[in-house]
Amino acid sequence: MPTNALCCPLQRDQSKPRYDQLMPPHTTRIRVRYAETDQMGIVHHKNYYVWMEVARVELCKAAGFRYRDLERDHGVFLAVVESRCRYAGSARFDDDVVIETHISEASTRMVRFSYEMFVEGRAIASGETRHVFLNRELKPTRVPTEYRSLFGL
Q1: Measured distance CA(62)–CA(56) in Å, rounded
Q2: Cα separation, 143 vs 37, whole angstroms
Q3: Catalytic amino acids?
Q4: Domain contains 3
Q5: Rounded to an integer, what distance in angstroms lies between the CA atom of residue 128 and that of residue 46?
Q6: 126: domain range?
Q7: The domain that contains 35 carries what CATH number?
Q8: Are 53 and 117 in contact (CB under 8 A)?
Q9: What does pTM read for this prediction?
Q10: CA atoms within 13 A on the CB side of 20
Q11: Would 18 be classed as within a structural domain?
Q12: Does 71 fall in a domain?
Protein backbone atom coordinates (compact mmCIF):
# COMPACT_ATOMS: atom_id res chain seq x y z
CA MET A 1 0.00 0.00 0.00
CA PRO A 2 1.42 3.47 -0.87
CA THR A 3 2.53 5.68 1.98
CA ASN A 4 3.01 9.40 2.35
CA ALA A 5 6.16 11.20 3.46
CA LEU A 6 5.30 10.50 7.12
CA CYS A 7 5.06 6.75 6.41
CA CYS A 8 1.34 6.65 7.13
CA PRO A 9 -0.88 4.58 4.83
CA LEU A 10 -2.72 6.65 2.25
CA GLN A 11 -6.44 6.06 2.16
CA ARG A 12 -8.19 6.25 -1.18
CA ASP A 13 -11.56 8.00 -1.13
CA GLN A 14 -13.85 4.99 -1.66
CA SER A 15 -16.64 7.25 -2.99
CA LYS A 16 -14.56 8.05 -6.08
CA PRO A 17 -13.93 5.44 -8.78
CA ARG A 18 -10.36 4.28 -9.34
CA TYR A 19 -8.64 5.99 -12.26
CA ASP A 20 -8.39 2.72 -14.18
CA GLN A 21 -12.17 2.41 -13.86
CA LEU A 22 -12.67 5.86 -15.40
CA MET A 23 -10.68 5.02 -18.49
CA PRO A 24 -9.46 1.52 -19.31
CA PRO A 25 -5.74 1.05 -19.85
CA HIS A 26 -4.61 2.14 -23.28
CA THR A 27 -2.57 -0.31 -25.34
CA THR A 28 0.37 0.83 -27.46
CA ARG A 29 2.45 -1.48 -29.65
CA ILE A 30 6.09 -0.87 -30.50
CA ARG A 31 8.29 -3.00 -32.74
CA VAL A 32 11.84 -3.19 -31.36
CA ARG A 33 14.32 -1.58 -33.75
CA TYR A 34 17.85 -2.90 -34.14
CA ALA A 35 19.27 0.43 -32.93
CA GLU A 36 17.51 -0.09 -29.58
CA THR A 37 19.48 -3.24 -28.77
CA ASP A 38 22.87 -3.62 -27.16
CA GLN A 39 25.78 -5.87 -28.14
CA MET A 40 23.99 -8.85 -26.57
CA GLY A 41 20.95 -8.25 -28.79
CA ILE A 42 18.80 -7.19 -25.84
CA VAL A 43 16.94 -3.87 -25.67
CA HIS A 44 19.01 -1.33 -23.75
CA HIS A 45 17.31 -0.24 -20.52
CA LYS A 46 17.08 3.44 -21.53
CA ASN A 47 14.61 2.59 -24.29
CA TYR A 48 11.92 1.51 -21.84
CA TYR A 49 11.63 5.15 -20.73
CA VAL A 50 11.26 6.26 -24.34
CA TRP A 51 8.53 3.66 -24.83
CA MET A 52 6.75 4.91 -21.69
CA GLU A 53 6.74 8.40 -23.18
CA VAL A 54 5.32 7.12 -26.47
CA ALA A 55 2.62 5.18 -24.60
CA ARG A 56 1.77 8.18 -22.39
CA VAL A 57 1.30 10.47 -25.40
CA GLU A 58 -0.88 7.82 -27.07
CA LEU A 59 -2.98 7.46 -23.90
CA CYS A 60 -3.57 11.22 -23.85
CA LYS A 61 -4.62 11.19 -27.51
CA ALA A 62 -7.01 8.32 -26.80
CA ALA A 63 -8.44 10.32 -23.86
CA GLY A 64 -9.21 13.22 -26.19
CA PHE A 65 -6.32 15.66 -25.97
CA ARG A 66 -2.86 16.19 -27.34
CA TYR A 67 0.17 17.16 -25.28
CA ARG A 68 1.03 19.69 -27.94
CA ASP A 69 -2.32 21.50 -27.55
CA LEU A 70 -2.03 21.60 -23.76
CA GLU A 71 1.39 23.24 -24.11
CA ARG A 72 0.67 25.54 -27.05
CA ASP A 73 -2.88 26.65 -26.25
CA HIS A 74 -2.74 26.73 -22.46
CA GLY A 75 0.96 27.13 -21.64
CA VAL A 76 0.79 24.08 -19.37
CA PHE A 77 3.54 21.47 -19.40
CA LEU A 78 3.73 18.02 -17.81
CA ALA A 79 7.19 17.85 -16.24
CA VAL A 80 8.52 14.46 -15.13
CA VAL A 81 9.53 14.67 -11.47
CA GLU A 82 9.83 10.96 -10.76
CA SER A 83 10.27 7.83 -12.85
CA ARG A 84 10.98 4.21 -12.24
CA CYS A 85 11.16 1.02 -14.26
CA ARG A 86 11.42 -2.53 -12.95
CA TYR A 87 12.74 -5.08 -15.42
CA ALA A 88 11.29 -8.58 -15.31
CA GLY A 89 12.47 -9.92 -18.65
CA SER A 90 13.96 -8.75 -21.89
CA ALA A 91 12.95 -7.74 -25.39
CA ARG A 92 14.99 -8.33 -28.53
CA PHE A 93 15.19 -6.97 -32.05
CA ASP A 94 11.89 -7.20 -33.96
CA ASP A 95 9.84 -8.19 -30.88
CA ASP A 96 6.38 -6.66 -30.70
CA VAL A 97 6.21 -4.89 -27.33
CA VAL A 98 2.75 -4.23 -25.92
CA ILE A 99 2.52 -1.40 -23.41
CA GLU A 100 -0.58 -1.01 -21.26
CA THR A 101 -0.79 2.48 -19.78
CA HIS A 102 -3.22 4.03 -17.34
CA ILE A 103 -3.53 6.97 -14.99
CA SER A 104 -2.96 5.59 -11.51
CA GLU A 105 -3.25 8.86 -9.57
CA ALA A 106 -4.16 12.45 -10.35
CA SER A 107 -4.84 15.78 -8.71
CA THR A 108 -5.14 19.29 -10.09
CA ARG A 109 -1.35 19.68 -9.65
CA MET A 110 0.08 16.27 -10.63
CA VAL A 111 -0.59 13.03 -12.47
CA ARG A 112 0.94 9.56 -12.22
CA PHE A 113 0.99 7.16 -15.17
CA SER A 114 1.59 3.43 -14.75
CA TYR A 115 2.93 1.11 -17.44
CA GLU A 116 3.05 -2.66 -17.96
CA MET A 117 5.14 -4.01 -20.87
CA PHE A 118 4.80 -7.42 -22.48
CA VAL A 119 6.29 -9.50 -25.29
CA GLU A 120 4.05 -12.36 -26.44
CA GLY A 121 2.09 -12.12 -23.17
CA ARG A 122 5.25 -12.33 -21.05
CA ALA A 123 5.82 -9.41 -18.67
CA ILE A 124 9.13 -7.71 -19.40
CA ALA A 125 8.85 -4.48 -17.38
CA SER A 126 6.60 -2.25 -15.32
CA GLY A 127 7.04 1.39 -14.49
CA GLU A 128 5.61 4.69 -13.38
CA THR A 129 6.16 8.34 -14.14
CA ARG A 130 4.91 11.18 -11.98
CA HIS A 131 4.42 14.61 -13.52
CA VAL A 132 3.63 18.06 -12.18
CA PHE A 133 1.79 20.69 -14.19
CA LEU A 134 3.99 23.73 -14.90
CA ASN A 135 3.21 27.07 -16.55
CA ARG A 136 5.36 28.80 -19.18
CA GLU A 137 7.57 30.24 -16.41
CA LEU A 138 8.13 26.63 -15.23
CA LYS A 139 6.26 27.31 -11.98
CA PRO A 140 3.74 24.82 -10.58
CA THR A 141 0.20 25.38 -11.79
CA ARG A 142 -3.11 23.55 -11.95
CA VAL A 143 -4.41 21.54 -14.87
CA PRO A 144 -6.85 23.70 -16.89
CA THR A 145 -10.49 23.15 -15.94
CA GLU A 146 -11.47 21.81 -19.36
CA TYR A 147 -8.88 18.99 -19.02
CA ARG A 148 -9.76 17.85 -15.51
CA SER A 149 -12.34 15.24 -16.47
CA LEU A 150 -9.76 13.66 -18.78
CA PHE A 151 -7.62 13.01 -15.70
CA GLY A 152 -10.55 11.71 -13.66
CA LEU A 153 -10.87 14.92 -11.64
Answers
A1: 10
A2: 37
A3: 38
A4: no
A5: 14
A6: 25-151
A7: 3.10.129.10
A8: no
A9: 0.83
A10: 11
A11: no
A12: yes
Whole-angstrom Cα distance, residue 105 to residue 95?
30
In contact, 102 and 60? CB cutoff 8 Å = no
Give dist(CA 108, CA 148) in Å, integer. 7
Q: Which of 82, 77, 80 is nearest to 147 (CA)?
A: 77
pLDDT in tens, 25-84: 899 999 999 999 999 999 999 999 999 999 999 999 998 888 889 999 999 999 999 999
Of 105, 104, 106, whose CA–CA distance to 115 is shortest? 104
Number of domains in the chain: 1
SS3 27: strand
Supply φ then ψ for residue 78, to 5 degrees.
-105, 100
Is 16 inside any structural domain?
A: no
Nearest partner of 97 among 58, 135, 131, judged by Cα: 58
